[in-house]
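2 proteins. here.
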Amino acid sequence: MSEGGADLTFDFVEDLARASLINKIDAAPHLRRCRAGRIGPLLELLSFHRAGLLPMGELGSNSILHTLKQTLSPARAGCAVLANGSVDQLGFIVTNRDVTSENQAEADIHWVYFCTKAQEAAELSMPRRTARGLIAAMMELEDNIHLHSQRWHDGVVGFRGTAADFEFVVADSGIGILQSLRASPAYQHLVGAGEAIQVALQDGNSRLNHEMPGHGYGFRDLFVGLANLNGYLRFRSDDHAFVIDGMSPSLMQGKLWQQARLQGLVASVVCHARPLAS
């Protein structure tokens, strides 16, 4: 996913978002100088854009941002786009399959195909068993959009695989983690998004537990799958981001950052099969 200029980063997207909150700007002139490396910043940028908080004008037909916007347009919702080059395996899909439909099997065809391609991309940099565990975690996070976001029809899942690493991102523009947890009597005490993110990542915490015990273990596959790997995890909801970075990442390694307010949840995961060189 190479374009001229510096890589698009989370910090750059944050700077654009804060600038736009103060004085609405057209992000396109700034973005033309960037290339899309990791897709986590790309989907956070898209989330700001779809919420009307970060307008993007003409990006150029060759831009990965332009392609992504076209792919996720309502007319083509649900369509996975895969760029199978010599370096990257790349895919995006909209989460608009209706999991309550009587024709669920038919609705799942695109999703199953997408997950198969995502696993192939993961296997470029890690063993099949490890790749399978990471895709299971991705699928669990996508399922959470349908269970918790209250806006399941336009969430986005993306993956990027190379010989060096594998990345996946699950993003929605729903009610966010804090509001979701506070729908349960057990979490009425939560007052901030940062605290809510950390609570949601712990085993056994779910707004559904007071109705159907046994929920709240969706992130377990993710942490198990990253054991002995160098991983980077970023969970972004409302006005906070919780970032975990390092070998065998765990909640104890996490750092909380206050950010510009972003509707919904964006979960970004990057993993390397081997420790990064110092």
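next one coming up
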Amino acid sequence: MSLKNTFLILGVALSVAQCAFSATIFSDDFDGYGAGDSATTNGTVGTYSLVMQTNGNNKATLGYNYGTAGFGIPSAPHSTGGTTTGLRLDANNGGTAAINSLVISPPISVPGNFSMTYDLWMNSIGGVTAGPPPAPPAWGGGGTSSSKANTVGVGYNGTTFLNNTSGSGVWFSGMGDGGFAGTSGTPDYEARIGSTLQATTTGDYAAGTTAGNGGAQDNSNPYYTALFPSQPTPTAQTLLVPPSPADNSDAGSLLFKWHTVGVSRNGTTVTWSIDGATIATVTDASATATGALAIGAWDPGTSQDAGRVFVLIDNLVVVPEPASATLLLVGLAGLGLRRRGTRR
């Protein structure tokens, strides 16, 4: 094969690879929804399917304008033109049940390899226990009953809740306020297969294999505290009634800052990342049981949220896994070079 033809093959391969890299399976910036696009019962909201553990005790709101809600939340990092509308998820917003969760699924099925990203903001009301006067309230893990977790998974069956007693596929959970001990059955950072919490000894967690307080599932682990420094309560929230404490969130937690969450599936291996850093990697056949994706919120306690313990999602994007395009490029290039080298 001539050098000219070799470069032609490389050019075609690169073109195909670039198309694969740029293809988008699904995206939503949540800017096109109206006031009626919310739901508190099982079924659908907008084009998304919705599963709630207790009807009426959870809520999903599409097109929620977090910029005008009085919480001091800035535009998400991947928004265009400074827009401030997203998806708000409230789990156990009535504070009447011990455990509550909801799951929302995009209207797509992705049977192959893919990467999904979205912007995440987690909010909380803060500490509720004050020290002796004149000491102000402190976070101390976010206070009693102020915890919410963001859940995300693949291979979802479309019907189960995602919590410590129910689940499907491979999924992950990140607690907003870092309010649970490493010895808890619902720690701050979780990887689960179905409802089964993966132990730290599996090696699934990038933070290590140590269990317990300060271990690989606890926000106080140095891996998390380095990735997620404590953040100040937005000033607007210190002026609300009741006020959130004018204090920093716990280091290693996800509060009061936009994060970029990523989930990728390559075969039966699923990787969960936040802000580009791997949090956990799980390999299990259930990851490919279905092509359904799941994003949700989970309250493992009884929220006293005063309307401000919630999960925000913005700028959801699903694309084909780039590794497929890379393999195609390398394979075609190798074919051209091999033919050129063996010509007589």
